[in-house]
What does this fold into?
Amino acid sequence: MSETRTFTFRPATEETPVVRWLLIGLAVLGIAILVAAPLFVVFAEALAKGVWTAVQSLGNRDALSAIKLTLMIAAISVPLNAAFGIAAAWFITKFDFRGKAFLITLIDLPFSVSPVVAGLCIVLMFGANSLVGGWLVAQGYPIVFALPGIVLATMFVTFPFVARELIPVMIEQGRAEEEAALTLGASGWRTFWTVTLPNIRWALLYGVLLCNARAMGEFGAVAVVSGKIRGQTATMPITIEMLYNEYLSIAAFSMAAVLTALALVTLLLKTALELRHADELAATRRH
Amino acid sequence: MGRPLIHRSPMPGLGLSMGITLTMLSLVVLLPIGALLLKGATFGIGNIWDTVNRERVWAALFLSFRLSLFAALFNLAFGVLLAWVLVRYRFPGRRILDAAVDLPFALPTAVAGIALTALYAPNGVFGGIAKEIGVKIAYTQWGIFIALIFVGLPFVTRTVQPVVEEIDREVEEASATLGASRLHTLTRVILPMLAPAALTGFALALARAVGEYGSVIFIAGNIPLVTEIAPLLIVIQLEEFNYDAAAAIGIAMLLISFAMLLIINLIQVWSRRRIGYV
It folds into this structure.
């Protein structure tokens, strides 16, 4: 035979190339329309009149106060939720008690409650008309339409993030290492700092990252409790709404671009964590 | 005697971790929800019913749940497709695509809301194209539908992806050896294996969409009876300091969400039992 023919066999467990590229095309097209296009629009609208106009719109007193407030809320609510997440994960994974599944359900509860309903709950609990809120206002500590209310609303909607990330990881790691440390005479705290924490640090960082992104961007719950007082209780997302409703498009999208950049950094760090520490995270094995 | 409430354990920190967990859970989540239920109890079931049983409230509740269901169904199909493509195929830009799926989780809802509105408004890029063919997207129910697809996009992909990774190729080989076509293998062997995880993702996407506020209100137009979502009604009542009515609608939403989650959990249990693995 003068020519050699090569046969290529398609394994029976693969789709034909046509089907494969069709599916890939659909996926890419879907993400381009649904995710990439809105992302692009934020920056395009912010920079519609040039970089300088966009930057200038962030320089006024109200915009700066919104940025400061949002940073402050995250700085209070994220560490508190991280502390809760660690305590809850320790309690749930290191001890055996009745009602554990129920407790986990309660911790997950905020995920199935609308942020607006969450805000409503905070208003009804701590508003000036309520028993607790009325007393606190009389003492000079208003909760609703003030910083503590916004922090509480933010904590409500981000409550499960850290705990959900830590619990599966700590279940998998078991108790043997801690038991060994305790047997060797380490104190409880020393065991936690030198044995448990190094094992869960990446999962903790992952949970904190997601918690922080949501805390800085929360809108529905904060809209209900903040009172939207310009320069005082208007967070960055609330300010975006106010500017947008006043047809100040460039200013609204410039502030949106700042939050979008933050979201992109969050995704970048998250992806890096998933690539480097996949086996120490719950997310990459979640079912 | 019965089982002890808490088993004795050599682990330290029981009191501290239990104390922090229960105190914060109560203060941040349980007591506020309790305050809502208490408000409802003092308002009375009859009054709650009278508040909810009005055309405008029914229209908003029906709209929220119907469009959330449609958006979650879209995300169910697209999410399974995405999970399959991301795990099984190798192509340039796969990692970027994988990371992009999570953007709706990371992007603040208000930002998504104004971005989608700018895109789908009649003078926007996609809105302009739609206008050419005589369709209005922003400020109609289509706009709400698109916003709800956006916020629920990652859920199904992220629950199905790990399951696709763990599928044993031998199962597919066995199916092919027995003479099944590839399509037959996909629909009769693979999809049933993905069903429980896909349903979990579907339920999460649905729950998220029903309560969604930030990304929807900008694009919705908020016309009573037509494009007014249920969470907005609560905000409107609160702005009028009408706490009783706000609590009544809030309780109705809470109950319907929990009922939905319960039904979906039951479907999940049933489908797992039928397929015969957990």
Summary: Chain B is about 80% helix and 0% strand. Chain B has one domain: 44-273.
